[in-house]
Write a structure and sequence with these properties.
Elements: E1 2-4, E2 9-10, H1 11-19, H2 25-31, H3 42-54
Antiparallel strand pairs: 1-2
Helix pairs in contact: 1-3
């Protein structure tokens, strides 16, 4: 699944960056070799970071 359409970054790549210790969206972007474009994916990346840290999925609003 694509997390970032603008940069064609998939969830696997984001997960690998988080597993490598990148725990802020900007650090994840950098680890993936991209920069944020529209920024809409930042919330999804934050949710993925939260889930990895806590083991709890954030509830949809």
């Amino acid at each position: 699944m694509y997390v970032c359409i603008c940069n064609a970054v998939c969830d696997k790549r984001v997960s690998q960056a988080i597993d490598a210790g990148h725990d802020e969206p900007d650090a994840v972007y950098a680890a993936c070799g991209v920069t944020p474009q529209c920024g809409k994916c930042a919330e999804t990346i934050e949710e993925m970071i939260w889930t990895k840290k806590t083991g709890v999925t954030m509830a949809a609003e």
